Structure formats: structure tokens, C-alpha cells
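User: I'll paste a sequence; please echo it back and then give the predicted structure.

Assistant: Echoing your sequence first, then the prediction.
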Amino acid sequence: MIRLKHLITLCLLLCFAPGLSAQTESRSGLFEEASTLLEQGNTLEAAALYRRILEGNSDREQRARALLFLSTLYSRNLNLPDTAVACLEQIETTYPDTSVVSDARFALGVVTYRSGRFHQAVTHFEGFIELYPDHMRSSSARAWLREAEELAGTKPSVSPQNKAMDQLPDRVRVLIRNDVEKVLLGKAGDPIAILRDGVPLYEGEGPVAVTVKNKALILNGVVAGSRALAVRSEGLRPRVDGQAYRGRVTLWPGDKGISVVNTLGIEPYLYGVLPKEMSPLWPEEALKAQAVASRTYTYNTLLSQKDHPRFDLEASTAFQVYGGADAETPETTRPVDLTRGSYLAFQGLPIIACFHANSGGMTESADAVWGAALPYLKGVKDSFSRLTPDACWKKELRVDAMVKRLWSKGYRPGGIISLETTEHSPSGRIGRVILNTSRGRLELTGNEFRLAMGPTEIKSSRFSATRQGNRYLFEGCGYGHGVGMSQWGARKMATSGFTYDTILHHYYKNVSLVTIDKGRLR
């Protein structure tokens, strides 16, 4: 469910403030939130927060700092070194009086070095050393300079892209339960063993009830300690709360409850993802396109996020919905196998393969939604999505109910006097919603407003609003944020005879379809 993940997270982060003027406050908090998002692998939401700081803060130091963090994000997470360089050069030209400028000049050398432009890196590091001979990073700059001088004029034996792919894990750790009070392991009559550090603590038949108290796990009422536990089911798939999973299941105690992680191969993981993201009854070519998009998203997350000590992804709409082995169907397993190891790449690296339910006739660019201009997430005309469910919709909302929903999300408006929409994107989606209320003006982005009202009520930010007494009539097209592949559009393309690769290249631009060495796959 990547179609909702980014927008829900971003909305929740920003809706603590009642309006645009209030949202310009507490920027240090937004920097921390953006850092947390990056650690979780939520790159686009982090970019949106940095953009919000850049656009809504009058403090030059904070704006320069936001540009510096954006440059790092573009270089390391989005594989866009030219955009990163543009951010750093903007710091040099626009904010030369800030304390961040020395970091920007050092970063110019690092970005150009990492992108293989060693002559430029030499120039940048030499300039940094000349300007800041006693800077704390001068010794590091000299070390980078020596390496750049040695590599200048030579062709790297291993490209940064190939090096990154060599480091790509073959397995994924999925958080399937998070801070729950109780977990049931195994099935009545089935053999099960619970191990700590490889030593069995329990051997017998399931189910085994696991609870937690004072950060210690308790098995059927017996304290098992505060260390992780593993589940072994004697050749059977381990079960958690009645659901079967491939691979290995591990439990950890925490302050708020029990966390359960399922570790398994990438392809078996996708077996449990695809039936949750697309109907098994849909055409195989659409399912193959979804399999490639989901695999690409998984690879991108594994490469871009910081290593978490316990898990890589969550089995929820925060990442991709994952149902384990019980969710698998032959109709969805086959497309995963047929596209085994294939992913969408930009300059050799997996892209952020966003998708959504229905574009309503035109997809949206990532820049319009998150402020991150990505060459592969551009808006495209999408006639395939027009004559499909949820292509267009209507919804009436009472004014008092709208105010109540805004309050529930942390906004504090009064009675709504008027509602205006501005900054429409090329796809027709709304950039800003301005609410004039009895307690003042409240300004939200189109997606913030949509999510505050409820993403199943206002299905996209492509809508018009008409006041009718104590109600507003909303009429719109599309379902979801509109970026990347439209799932209903993919279905229509497949029924019209298009193959999965054509579907993917329709929705994702400037990409190549790559298959990694299948010998690595398990």
C-alpha cells in the first residue's frame, strides 16, 4: 500500500500545527522528524519536510541547513548527484554568510567523488583546503584529495551502482507484530520449539502463549528472560496468532510489548505481498507489473535506509502490506516467479516505485506531492484509468463534521466560513486548500486536507468543492496520491493486450528493467 504510506506519515507529522504560520515554528523538531523518516527508509517524506523548512522559514541558517540535508538525501538516497550539487552550489551563492557553507564546500567534493567525477572532486577539495586550512575536516579533505588525484583519469573497476547491488541483502526482515501484549505461537497438536540462543526453552505442542512483563518474555506463564526467542516448528511453517509464515520467526520484548520479526528471502516475501496489493483475479500481466514494482520498492528500501538492528520493513501500509504464507495464492505466486529478480532501475539502482489505486486520467509527479523532482516519477496522461472504478467520485461532508475531523488531526479551526483551492498542478490536483474560519485562516496542502478528511472519503487531491448550505459537495477523480503506477490503469492495459514491461514503462519514465543474478536468489 505504498499509495498511502508517504502521505499519511507526512500529514501526521505536520498536522500538530493549526496553520501555515504555526507550521513555520519548531523547525529543529522537523529536522529530527526528517532524520527519523530517513532511518525508516521514508525518503520522500523526509524530502518534503526539508522542503517545508526551506520554503517556510525566514532563518537563513535553517534554510541553508535544510539545503545541506537535501543534498545528502539526493546524493545518497535518490541517486541524483547533479541535484545534490545544485543544492550545495545554492548554499555557496545564496547563503555564503552562514556557518553551513564550509560543510557545503566539503560535501561538493564528496558528492563529485562518489559519482566518479574525480577531476571535479580534486578541484573542490583543493578549494576547501585553501579556504579552511585549519578546519576540523581539513585532514579528511586531504585524504579524499589524494584518492581523487589517484583516480582522476582512470575508469573505476567497480561502478558505485554495481558496488551497491553487490551489497544488497538476499533476505528481508519484516516486522509482523509491533508492541503487542500477547502472541500465540504454533497450532494445536503441531510440534513446536521455542529457543533462546539456540537452546530450547520449550519443546512440545502448540499453541504457546507469549506475554511480556518488566521487559521479560513469559512462555505459558514461565519467565523466559529479556533476550530474543526463536520459533522452530519441525519442518512446518511457524505460526503467529494462527497465521503461517515462511522463513524464521523471532520475538523481542520491549517497553511497550512484544515485537515479532519474520526473516525470509526476497522472493518468498513477495509471495505474501502481491495478493495483498492486487487482486489475484486480475490479469497476469498486471500482476507481473505489480510484482516488479513491489520488488523494486523492497530493494530500494533495503539499499537506502539505515540498518535497523531488528527489522527492515513493516508488514503494513507504512511499507507494503504483507500477509505471510496464508495470504499466498497460485495466481499471485506465478507472476513473482516469472519476474524473479527483476526490478526497475535509474542509473543502475532500484527506484522508489510508488503506486496507487487509480490516477483518474493523469498521474502526478513526485515533485508536486513531496517536493522531490525525480526523473522517473513524472506525471503522464493515463486514459487507461478513466473508465475504471473510482475514476471519478462524489462525496458530501457536513461542515461541522469537517471541523471535527480537522480537530481530531491536531488542527484548531473554528467554524468554516469559506473554502478555496489554489496552485493546481498540471494533472489538476490541488496544491493548497485555504479554509477561512471563525478562528482565523487555515492553509493546508491538498494532500494534507484529503488525509485529514479521510483518504477513503476524499479519495484524491484532484477535486472541486461546492458549498451547499451546511455541507460541502466534493467531486473528484482518482484514488490515492497519483504518483507512479495506477493499479487500475495497469489492469486495463493488461486486458487491452499490453505486457507488463510496457505497463511499467508507461508509468515510470527514464528507467530500465534489470534482472539481478538469479543464482543469488533463494
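The chain has a mean pLDDT of 88. Residues 182-256 form one domain.
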